[in-house]
Design goal:
- The chain is mainly alpha-helical and 418 residues long.
- The chain has 13 helices and no strands.
- The chain has helices at residues 9-38, 58-81, 87-126, 134-179, 181-184, 190-229, 245-264, 268-291, 298-346, 352-369, 371-374, 376-397, 405-410.
- It is globular and about 90 Å long.
- The two termini are 22 Å apart.
- 24% of the residues are buried.
Length: 418
């Protein structure tokens, strides 16, 4: 799965983590502060630049050069250390996806910066002493349209490029497995592993991979925003004054939700794995019964289907109380930001525009922290496919006897008998 597309996967991904940590430490510890404070990235008023100009400030220009330099150095090193036939896609393609995802998140930050002047203008227009004109509101709407159009371009490009990237990964796996076809063709279910599981693996990675990168980038982009916005909030209900109240409240609330839902849903992954196994056993017996009249007797099939029914009913029960807690948390999440802002709103210490900025940033951070909870069913499916492909690769690497399919079934194979 990985060695077919990435050079020396274990070492490669370790080096990615280390190199990314070094790059982030260098940016946030030195270069970023210099570009923002010394090079004058912000508007003269000290407020963020509103509109497309946000992306061509000195701060961003320095970041573009910094990112390109680190990526070029990393790619060059791997091109020399471990040349790989898919290196342009696996290494350089990953960097392009990383940058486009980060840029897309920064577009969301730009929209959040736009919220303050727009909603402050709306608040002013609705007041008894309005100084806001229709032209000013139209101008702000036009600025939003420009940012939204840029987001659309980046979104379409990222999805289009990612689709090609993941298909290249599937192609690499397919070429690798087919190069060993003479060794694997005797393994029952080999065709399904090569065609169906590589296809499903690629599809899930496309959806899941981009989402997790986007969640990480959102945290990187919006945590500093929440930290800055915390200056407008003096205290929290029941807690009082604490450092960076918005940032602290967001992280605490998100971690609480993640732990809560993980705890109440702890049995669901195991039940999903077992569901695949009982379905595979039932389907396998039916397939054997097509060719062998001695198989798939009514009593045998009834027993296997009883196992399927029992597991599904257990799954429904555990999903029921999981959805109760999940629904309660999500409904509470809708008003949590308002709840912690009640003292600040009642005291009239923030404007409508600042309130919108806080709510948006808070929601972005909360959703990113809750990524694992919201995506766990897809993650479980990916882990199941990963287990089957690992078992498949282990089977032909060790050149086992034809009954290696037993290991594939134990990994949760759906229809291994095909």
């Amino acid at each position: 799965m990985f060695s077919s597309f990435f050079p020396k996967p274990k070492l490669f991904f370790i080096s990615v983590i280390i190199w990314a940590a070094v790059a982030m430490a260098g940016w946030y510890g030195l270069i970023g502060d210099w570009s923002a404070n010394v090079a004058g990235a912000n508007a003269p008023s000290g407020d963020p630049v509103i509109g497309l100009g946000y992306f061509v400030t000195t701060d961003f220009m320095v970041f573009y050069v910094y990112f390109a330099a680190f990526c070029a150095a990393f790619a060059a090193a791997w091109f020399i250390i471990a040349p790989h036939p898919w290196q342009w896609w696996s290494i350089c393609g990953s960097m392009i996806i990383l940058f486009s995802t980060y840029f897309s998140v920064q577009v969301s930050v730009a929209i959040n910066n736009w919220r303050r002047p727009f909603f402050d203008s709306v608040q002013n227009a609705l007041s008894g002493k309005s100084t806001t004109t229709a032209d000013q509101l139209f101008e702000l709407i036009l600025i939003f349209a420009q940012i939204a159009f840029l987001w659309l371009l980046i979104y379409v490009f990222t999805r289009f490029f990612t689709s090609h990237y993941v298909f290249r990964w599937r192609a690499a796996m397919n070429h690798y497995y087919m190069s060993r076809w003479a060794e694997v063709r005797h393994i029952e279910g080999a065709a399904q592993r090569v065609q169906e599981d590589t296809m499903r693996f690629a599809t899930i990675v496309e959806d899941l991979g981009v989402s997790i990168i986007e969640s990480i980038m959102t945290l990187i982009a919006f945590l500093p925003v929440l930290f800055v916005l915390s200056k407008y909030v003096a205290e929290l209900p029941f807690v009082g004054e604490i450092p960076a109240p918005l940032l602290t409240a967001s992280i605490t609330w998100s971690i609480f939700g993640t732990i809560l839902l993980a705890a109440v849903g702890i049995k669901l992954p195991g039940l999903n794995f077992r569901n695949q196994r009982v379905e595979a056993a039932y389907r396998k017996e039916l397939v054997y019964g097509e060719d062998d009249p001695g198989r798939a007797h009514p009593m045998t099939v009834a027993g296997l289907f009883s196992d399927v029914r029992t597991n599904y009913f257990r799954l429904y029960f555990h999903y029921a109380y999981f959805n109760v807690f999940r629904g309660m948390y999500l409904q509470a999440d809708n008003i949590f930001a308002y709840l912690i802002l009640i003292p600040t709103i009642a005291a009239g210490k923030i404007t409508f525009g600042i309130l919108q900025q806080i709510l948006t940033a808070f929601g972005q951070v909360s959703n990113s922290f809750q990524y694992l909870v919201n995506s766990w069913t897809t993650i479980i499916e990916l882990l199941s496919i990963h287990k089957r492909l690992v078992a498949f690769e282990r089977a032909f690497d060790n050149n086992p006897p034809p009954d290696a399919v037993g290991e594939l079934d134990a990994a949760g194979s759906l229809g291994a008998a095909e």
